[in-house]
Design a protein that fits this description.
The chain is of the alpha+beta class and 126 residues long. Helices cover 22% and strands 29% of the residues. A 6-stranded mixed β-sheet has the order 1-2-3-6-4-5, with helices on one face. β4, α2 and β5 form a beta-alpha-beta unit. Belongs to the RutC family.
Length: 126
């Protein structure tokens, strides 16, 4: 059975999708962009954008009763690979080195609302 996960502590979906779906103990989190859920506004600059995306993901994980330790897979979309090092340091600061998820990072030509970063995750309940 599928359960929709939704929280006001992450940006509302801007299309026909859910923030996340929980199915058979696996949480599928939709790609998060750097929208501040309190204001509905985009944050700018790769550092602030990465922090905001990670906070949005954390809010969804929390709503599902999980943490970043439950994450088994992450997909990162960057508008420019020139931002990789900065993004990578910030991304790592939210994670436990003992439980890093699998991951890929790809450069894309454009993202929703023309942001610089989007991250989706898959987590698993213990």
């Amino acid at each position: 059975m599928k359960k929709i996960i939704n929280t006001v502590n992450a940006p509302a979906a801007i299309g026909p999708y859910s923030q996340a779906n929980l199915a058979n103990g696996v949480l599928y989190i939709s790609g998060q962009i750097p929208v501040d859920p309190a204001t509905g506004k985009l944050v700018e600059g790769i550092e602030k954008e990465t922090h905001q995306v990670m906070k949005n993901l954390e809010a969804i994980l929390t709503e599902a009763g999980m943490t970043f330790k439950n994450v088994v897979k992450a997909t990162i979309f960057l508008k420019s690979m020139d931002d990789f090092a900065v993004m990578n340091d910030i991304y790592a600061s939210y994670l436990d080195a003992e439980s890093y998820p699998a991951r890929e990072t790809v450069q894309v030509s454009c993202l929703p609302k023309n942001v610089d970063i989007e991250i989706s995750m898959i987590a698993h309940q213990d």
